[in-house]
Specification:
With 133 residues, this protein is an alpha/beta fold. Helices cover 34% and strands 29% of the residues. The chain contains 5 helices and 7 strands; from the N terminus they run E-H-E-E-E-E-H-H-E-H-H-E. Strand 2 and strand 3 form a beta hairpin.
Length: 133
């Protein structure tokens, strides 16, 4: 059995970057240049955390996970840790979470909805990581 990595930890982040790099070619990413910052509220340790991901011409630019609210991004998505965890396990669809108000988006909603297939692809890769939530 594969060892589970603690969600949002440095080893989990490193594994995520490896899997995203392997699974998301610039072509699959439609040569996207964008950035998103998932801002996690009510984390189990009582702190706020963020997961920042940027793409430049369809390749990963930066992947940062740390405490606090994180850097500015084209899209800032805010929600509870448990909601993001459910999305990362693919138990909850990100678009449904957004439309039902479980997560909040700051940024261009029209562009965000056009990127749903890319976000789904990222979430499917994320769900392949053996994770302890």
């Amino acid at each position: 059995m594969e060892e589970k990595l603690l969600y949002l930890s440095k080893p989990w982040r490193d594994e995520l970057e490896k899997r995203l790099t392997e699974g998301l070619t610039p072509d699959k990413m439609k040569n996207l240049t964008s950035s998103m910052n998932n801002h996690y509220l009510n984390c189990p340790d009582g702190k706020e955390k963020f997961y920042y991901l940027s793409f430049v011409d369809g390749k990963i630019g930066e992947l940062i996970i740390d405490e606090g609210s994180g850097p500015d991004a084209e899209f800032v998505i805010t929600g509870d840790y448990e909601i993001f965890a459910a999305i990362s396990r693919t138990e909850l669809n990100a678009q449904k979470a957004l439309m039902s108000g479980k997560i909040k988006l700051k940024g261009n909603m029209v562009k965000a909805l056009k990127l749903v297939s890319i976000i789904d692809r990222i979430n499917k890769i994320t769900a392949t990581i053996p994770t302890e939530f």
